What does this fold into?
Amino acid sequence: MQTIRTTCPYCGVGCGVLATPDGGGGLAVAGDPAHPANRGRLCVKGAALGETAGHRGRLRAPRIHGREAGWDEALDLIARRFCETIAAHGPDSVAFYVSGQLLTEDYYVANKLMKGYIGSANIDTNSRLCMASAVAGHRRAFGSDTVPGLYEDLELADTVVLVGSNLAWCHPVLYQRLVAAREARGTRVIVIDPRRTATCDVADLHLQIAPGSDAALFNLLLAEISRRSEVCPDDLENIQEALAAARATSPAVTGLAHSQLRQFFDLWMHSDKVVTVWSQGVNQSDSGTDKVNAILNCHLASGRIGRPGMGPFSVTGQPNAMGGREVGGLANMLACHLEIGNPDHREAVRTFWNAPRMAQRSGLKAVDMFRAVEEGRIKALWVICTNPAVTLSEADRVARAIAGCDFVVVSDIMAQTDTMRFAHVALPATGWGEKDGTVTNSERRISRQRRVLTPPGQARDDWRILAEVGRRMGWGASFGWQHPAQVFAEYAALSGVAAGLGSDFDISAHAEISVAQYDALEPFLWPQSATKQGGRFFGDGRFHTPSGRGRMVAVTPRPPQPVSEAYPFRLNTGRVRDHWHTMTRTGLSPRLSRHLAEPYLELHPTDAAQLGLQPAALAEVTNAHGSAVLRVLVSDRVAPGHPFAPMHWTGETAPTGRVDALVPGATDPVSGQPALKSAAVAIRPFAARWFGFAVSAGEMRPDCDYWARAILPNGVQAELAGRKPPADWTDHARALFGLEDEPLVVHDRARGQVRLAFLRDGRLQAALFVAAGPVALSRSHITALLCEGGAEVLAGRPGAGRPDEGALVCACFGIGVNSIVKAIASRRLTSVEAVGQALRAGTNCGSCRPEIRALLDAGVACREAAQ
Ligand SMILES: Nc1nc2c(c(=O)[nH]1)N[C@H]1C(S)=C(S)[C@@H](COP(=O)(O)OP(=O)(O)OC[C@H]3O[C@@H](n4cnc5c(=O)[nH]c(N)nc54)[C@H](O)[C@@H]3O)O[C@H]1N2
Ligand SMILES: Nc1nc2c(c(=O)[nH]1)N[C@H]1C(S)=C(S)[C@@H](COP(=O)(O)OP(=O)(O)OC[C@H]3O[C@@H](n4cnc5c(=O)[nH]c(N)nc54)[C@H](O)[C@@H]3O)O[C@H]1N2
Ligand code: SF4
Ligand SMILES: [Mo]
It folds into this structure.
């Protein structure tokens, strides 16, 4: 089969992928050595793309009120309901909520339909939860949402500062490029994070900052920059005000020692080439935009911007978060970085689109949009490529709001998601590998995603669905494209118009692109026009502000919302290494599901002791917004009072693991981005009377107070718990597995243990292990016996010749923590490379190398203690 060059659909690094279909629906993937973002590397999620690209769980046909329908019926209904709602209540009574995982062409069509034809700007994207503070900070400082630098700046820098970014897990290939540069030239790495993450593995300095105090820290740095009289260009606006605010900042709020601050200032100022990378620890805050500007201030004031090896660098989360910003996916922007508040910009876009009803003002931002849905001001909602019932702050409230909306359309690739449950009309979209289009990565590089696979059933491309609705609403001539290349060409032409109005975003070189050229399009950096060609911005000291000067912003640090006596813990949230958001795709891969198979709460040992929570117990986390039940992971990687929980679990995988049920709706006043990293919560032991672990080669329908499900190569596993044991365990197990058979049962009443196994022809079909406390059995041993072993599973212990791998570390070769620890001890291994030679662990994608290094460090510490 032919190998096709495409782009990874996960993070904003935007790695090139070589995809080879096997003809039977399967897909082999490898890193594209020719792609400038990754030069052949892939992380574990990219490497597992073949496992997640199938048709399992996919939505195959449109559904109206749960019954299958034809496309014509579904599209006519949508067009009619939107037209009727607009006619009766005006254009602002409808809304689109879209996604940074859409392709640029999808985004362009959605934006044109809403802002130019429906005549409202009520289109916002999940980038509001992700990049909005970076966008707002850039616009305040530079006059445009421009990322000045390139990935290679991380390799050319002498010092790289990572603020609120777990790069090792969230941008793994960029992290690996940084690690390689550090090994080659001794780059110093500073990590600023209240948590000790895997990224700290390569940190020369880890500042375990008090949550929310980043603006104060960078203000202190700015004051120090000016005190040490570093280059401080006169040609910046507002410099005196910014310095005055900086000098008034107290170091105490950062929670850092004087010596740590000194070390940070020294490292920063002794290198000319400093890159400051930031991500959600900065953006997702109720002072996110100020945090961004506090960082930008330091780079502006010291002139460290837009030249090789230096500059501020906001890394984007989603594969096309950047493309969405460019194309105007946010409710307060127009296409091509033009501004909705600017009448000239509006007029230029109106003319270009020949728009009958151009939106005149900004639309509702994500959190406000769902408030308007709740209040009935929005009566028709179309959610595309995102899962807000899980991922928005106050998620229970958002779910209720969607449930109460008059007309809800959801376009997704999957048949079942938490948001899909509320769809009046469900539309099957083509997914990654099935559609053609473009995405822009964190360094402004536009790459093609290409179709490699056949879509399931009647699935259609998102842009085609949107254009079809536009046509049925009466605007056929403006939504008549036949090929995504035509959409891209129109967009490129519009960028030429925008450039004429001073916009930085200009890809007008592609305004005449043909289908063949589009098919052959190589990854390129924007701008790309007759006169401009990629590269960095602002190295010449000229910015996009009206005066042409960079703008300092006076930042007065604000502490985050205080915790209270009732809710004394500040819950931090984020990501794990091997899962992507609500897991609709990574959850299909057994390999990716083994690293962390359950929602958890990382809790400091003193907090755990005080709360009476043992490792592996279940904790109930509550506040006024909602509650969650999470597995306790006792760890000093988090600070006392500041537990951490990942965001990935949903009603489909672990209904009590939805952490956004706890996150309040507070937003940053400038960007409207919700403060997703900070929820005041109470924690107490979850009063479970029984705990269970189950495996099944067939189905699994848990019905108990706590459950978390994960896929296995040959079935599914689940952790279970309940407040009250069922009357009969055999009946419970039969219902759980959908089996009628008679199980083998071992009942140890003294210890409160029950073990049940269902065998068929001597082979294990399903098993349930119940105990009064957390089930202490080797999960990997039991899952390995599924379909293979028999009654010996009831012993629960690994037999001879079956080593217990423990928790998975290296997903590529399936190597667990126990094997690595054993090899380190018995063979006295001291380096990640040595572990790789001994076990192969960490030698493929490299995503687990930080964890191997941590195990080595722990091993060395043990040996030293023993000596
Ligand atoms: N494996 C994986 N990778 C992903 C994703 C995924 O789902 N899984 N999603 C992608 C997306 S869309 C995004 S946006 C990115 C996100 O990438 P990151 O932003 O790197 O990831 P997060 O885990 O959300 O948060 C980063 C860190 O912010 C820290 N933090 C919390 N509060 C503060 C604070 O007040 N100050 C500072 N300095 N730090 C704080 C947290 O402890 C956390 O370690 O990842 C992308 N990559
Ligand atoms: N507490 C907390 N909450 C957070 C965050 C956090 O750090 N903490 N991070 C926030 C951030 S940065 C982000 S980006 C969001 C992410 O949150 P979401 O965007 O809500 O999460 P995803 O799981 O990525 O949802 C994407 C959906 O689109 C579907 N899909 C995939 N491909 C396609 C396609 O081609 N077309 C269509 N139509 N559908 C498709 C998937 O099946 C899935 O249902 O979460 C935010 N929420
Ligand atoms: S770093 Fe991993 S998830 Fe991100 S684009 Fe590359 S392969 Fe995909
Ligand atoms: Mo994101």
